[in-house]
Design goal:
Length: 951
């Protein structure tokens, strides 16, 4: 795709269905009522000069470049702030307008450096274009008077610079920070000639509240705010639209290129998930793809104490295949398995599970969703009939009440978090259910109406108490229930939740939330209009994770908040393709499309398509694989794009299991923690190096397009295909589109999906089939997928993980904005400037009791293990609760998490670990041992035997 600039219509489109006809420069133009004159002209192909206007922001009318003449109107109104009217006659160009525009442009240029030839924006500068458009040829004022040309440049941010000498004070950056991002980190300081853009309280960008989303950089019409990558590499010359590989929002980006050099990632204005917005990770943290740590040549070794040997792709694939076949001959068919990736594409994930089921001959396949959102699949499948969220992100624009449970959107899903904040500023009410004071509880211009600050592990008690209020106070939507739900299950549930033991008063002692706060929140959700629930891992990663998901579904059905825009049950997926990895049949008990392996009709369908006999019994889940490895019956594992040695709970147990296996094949970008236990390393490809699709949290299937040649020579799907062929199961695809065609043939929800349709529509939300050929933005609109919605009982059962005198505090975990998951990608970018280590948040009261000061090293000990972290004293956590992130492997956050898990899905209970915290002076025994092991593995990598030496 060539570097064609996106059309900027100057002001946002009108949503009105009424049409208005007017005349612009003698042309008859018909547009939607509410459209600005500027946009109407642009849609007619008439360009009006502008500087402060852009179609991603509300009109502002400050630059005075876009003045027009309107018949019968006084003066020369700004076209950006003037709405069209029926019969209006507009003149956009005459001698008087030309004189005015040149005069205004002359004033701008008189206080602007004339270094265009060496400016980083040269060739892509709106001021430069506008000055040329109005025909300015001389500046009469000179530079003798006061000016801003010597203003100091701010280079504190690692990704962009701020050069105030080039600022024209158009306010676009300030407005973008306010309207698009919702952080309000920028302002116009001073008045008149002294006006200037300021970050925070006249701080530099790095020290201000700026979250480096890039909205201000994108909005800037000059080189005032400019990406350092553009300053370094120059303006790009082509762009390719692709999809971000970080969180489950699935933002669309224009990868702007010079040859194979990614110059910058610019959020696509037409992106249907992000609408031209981005976060610091997707916008700037793409440098990991070409980091020096990338391993680009296949490697093998017999034992993990051996040095790695670089080999050809053919040798590595043959070595891996021989090992796997040998293990099956020695230990049996079920002795090996695979783990699919939530970072790889749908097509690549599909091939891995196909390789395991058809090539390995068993169902020993699982995915990282096991340890995050598997309770979502169980809970929503059993209540609604489909294992996915119900809405698209835009649905929140029509929400009146938003309940956020166990999620931190501004950190974990920041682009959607900005959409949520905007809706709250517009008047939507907010209920936050979280043990911590997340940013949504109270931040500039956003404040929760209710914060239900519960004790970790008591979600079910709280959700059932909310239901108690709704039922006993007659707040249910009986018409919806009669029409859409199973009445027998409803009556049982209604009787259950109405019991006094489930009342807010009875549960207050359990949850720690005052009864009246629970009652007020329940009334607001049930009666406040369109009520939407968004939840995250703070719901699912519990021993009763599935029960809480069921409880949330019960709340939505009981209040009729399902099946239309503005409502619904919405899991916020953590990784870019968690939804897709689940859809693609990555669980041991389900084929693609969530169909059980024991179903004869489904199994026959796949057997005929794949020409092989398939197992009817579910295979091993990830925790079962570890247990079987330690028992000696599970010996080989193919891991594509996951780091189970860091991300899974009770890490000492995981590492023990990995050491017991005889062949671990890791396919990844870096020597991650799991690869340190591997015998085969197959170079992976980043999202910039492959074609395929990702499916985000709103079931949106979006295109991933190759913008550079894979550094290792192969896309991930090609590697899996080679391995399948080497073990004797033939795969012969020539392009990922052929894989998607097969998925569509075999999967009802995907029957209408094709690359041609995705190319035409931009993206598709499944289900997409004959009934819904253009996809399904809102699920369960007329009826539930299962027919009638099913209510289920949610008995609160306390977790086995209890505090005691020995372990008096509760540890819970989560994420931070600048880092991503296990950190393998973001730790290799400048994002470490904001977060260079995992810290233990501890309340001032607990810290004082324990004699701990901010920054002290503290030992955190649980029943599973011990690690050492630096303390961060903060009132974001409540007394009795401590909190940490898990982005750095040597922090050992998962050394202390236990092997407790969800009763239905084995999803680990990351969010509740009883711990003892004390000030210490040295790392834990595990940290010292693991650091030694890691250094040894790094040495074995650095001293690897090159391919020519091996030959």
């Amino acid at each position: 795709m060539s570097m064609n600039k996106e059309t900027d219509y100057g002001t946002p489109a009108s949503s009105s269905t009424n049409q208005v006809t007017l005349e612009i420069d003698g042309r008859t133009v018909t547009v939607a009522e509410g459209t600005s004159v500027m946009r109407a002209a642009a849609e007619a192909g008439i360009s009006i000069p502008k500087l402060c206007a852009t179609d991603s922001l509300d009109p502002f009318g400050s630059c005075r470049m876009c003045l027009v003449q309107i018949e019968g109107a006084r003066g020369y109104p700004a076209s950006c702030t003037t709405p069209v009217a029926e019969g209006m006659k507009v003149c956009t160009q005459n001698d008087k307008l030309a004189d005015i525009r040149r005069g205004v442009a002359e004033l701008y240029i008189s206080d602007h450096p004339l270094d265009c030839l060496t400016c980083s924006a040269n060739g892509n500068c709106e001021l430069q274009d506008t000055v040329g458009q109005v025909g300015l040829r001389e500046v009469r004022y000179g530079y003798e008077g006061d000016n801003h040309l010597s203003a100091t440049k701010d280079t504190s941010n690692p990704y962009f610079s701020f050069d105030p000498s080039k600022c024209i004070v158009c306010s676009r950056c300030v407005r973008a920070c306010e309207e698009t991002q919702g952080t309000f980190a920028l302002t116009i300081d001073g008045r008149g000639f002294e006006s200037k853009v300021a970050s925070g309280q006249n701080q530099d960008f790095l020290d201000s509240e700026c979250v480096s989303c890039g909205a201000c950089v994108q909005a800037c019409p000059t080189a005032t705010l400019m990406e350092n990558s553009v300053i370094q590499h120059g303006q790009p010359d082509e762009s390719i639209i692709t999809t971000c590989a970080y969180c489950g929002v699935g933002c669309s980006f224009r990868a702007e290129m010079k040859g194979e050099q990614v110059v910058r990632m610019v959020p696509d204005k037409n992106g249907q998930a992000n609408h031209g917005h981005s976060c610091v990770k997707g916008r700037f943290a793409f440098g990991y793809a070409t980091h020096k740590d990338r391993i680009t040549k296949p490697m093998i070794r017999e034992k993990i104490t051996d040095a790695w040997q670089e080999v050809t792709w053919e040798e590595a694939i043959r070595f891996a295949a021989d090992k796997l076949k040998g293990l099956q001959q020695k230990y049996g068919r079920d002795s090996i398995g695979g783990i699919t990736s939530s970072r790889c594409t749908n097509e690549e994930t599909y091939l891995v599970q196909k390789l395991v089921r058809a090539g390995f001959g068993n169902n020993n396949v699982d995915t990282c969703a096991r340890v995050c959102h598997s309770p979502t699949g169980y809970g929503l499948k059993n209540t609604f009939g489909e294992s996915s969220g119900t809405q698209n992100f835009d649905s929140i624009r029509k929400s009146d009440v938003i309940m956020v449970i166990g999620a931190n959107p501004t950190d974990g899903h920041p682009v959607f978090g900005s959409m949520m904040k905007r809706r709250i500023r517009e008047g939507a009410k907010l209920i936050v259910v979280d043990p911590r004071n997340i940013n949504l509880v109270k931040s500039p211009h956003v404040k929760a109406n209710y914060h239900l600050k519960l004790r970790p592990g008591t979600n079910v008690a709280l959700v059932t108490a909310l239901a108690h209020v709704i039922v006993t106070e007659g707040l249910t939507d009986e018409r919806f229930i009669d029409e859409r739900c199973d009445i027998e299950s409803y009556q049982k549930w209604k009787t259950f939740v109405a019991q006094e033991e489930n009342s807010p008063e009875a549960m207050a002692e359990v949850t720690g939330v005052p009864a009246e706060t629970i009652r007020a929140a329940a009334r607001l959700y049930a009666t406040g209009g369109n009520g939407a629930i968004y939840y995250g891992l703070g719901v699912t990663e519990h021993s009763q994770g599935s029960t809480t998901v069921i409880g949330i579904a019960n709340l939505a059905m009981a209040t009729g908040n399902i099946g239309r825009e503005g409502v619904g049950v919405n899991p916020l997926r953590g990784q870019n393709n968690v939804q897709g990895s689940c859809d693609m049949g990555s669980f041991p008990h389900e084929f693609v499309g969530y169909r059980h392996v024991s179903d004869v009709e489904t199994r026959t369908l796949f057997e005929n398509a794949w020409n092989v006999e398939l197992q009817a019994e579910p295979g091993l889940r990830i925790p079962n694989m570890f247990g079987a490895a330690i028992d000696g019956s599970f010996k080989g594992l193919y891991v594509q794009g996951e780091d189970i040695a860091q991300s899974d709970p009770d890490i000492k147990h995981v590492h023990h299991a990995l050491r017991e296996m005889e062949c671990i094949i890791v396919q990844d970008l870096f020597l991650n923690e799991t690869a340190k236990f591997a015998h085969v390393f197959l170079p992976g490809s980043s999202f910039l190096e492959k074609n395929g699709t990702f499916t985000n949290a709103e079931r949106r299937i979006s295109p991933v397009r190759k913008v550079m040649t894979p550094l290792g020579g192969k896309e991930d799907w090609e590697v899996t295909q080679d391995l399948a062929n080497a073990i004797g199961f033939p795969m012969n695809y020539s392009h990922p589109s052929e894989i998607m065609d097969e998925i569509a043939r075999l999967t009802p929800q995907f029957a209408g999906v094709s690359y041609e349709k995705i190319e035409r529509m931009g993206s598709i939300q499944w289900p997409c089939n004959d009934e819904t050929p253009d996809g399904t933005p809102t699920m369960h609109a007329d009826h539930f997928i299962r027919g009638k919605g099913r209510f289920m009982l949610t008995q609160y059962i306390p977790t086995e993980e209890r505090t005691s005198r020995k372990f008096p505090l509760i540890l819970t975990t989560g994420r931070i904005l600048s880092q991503y998951n296990v950190g393998a990608q973001t730790r290799r970018t400048d994002n470490v400037v904001w977060h260079e280590e995992d810290r233990l948040e501890i309340h001032p009261h607990d810290a004082e009791q324990l004699g701990i000061a901010d920054g002290d090293w503290v030992g955190v000990k649980s029943r599973s293990g011990e690690t050492v972290l630096r303390a961060l004293i903060t009132d974001r956590v409540q007394p009795g609760v401590v909190y940490t992130t898990f982005h750095f492997p040597h922090s050992g956050a998962n050394v202390i998490t236990t092997d407790n898990s969800d009763w239905a899905t084995n999803c680990p209970e990351y969010k509740v670990t009883a711990v003892h915290v004390a000030k210490v002076s040295h790392p834990s025994e595990w940290q010292e041992e693991y650091r030694s092991f890691s250094e040894q593995q790094q040495s074995l990598l650095e001293n690897r035997i090159a391919a020519h030496e091996h030959d």
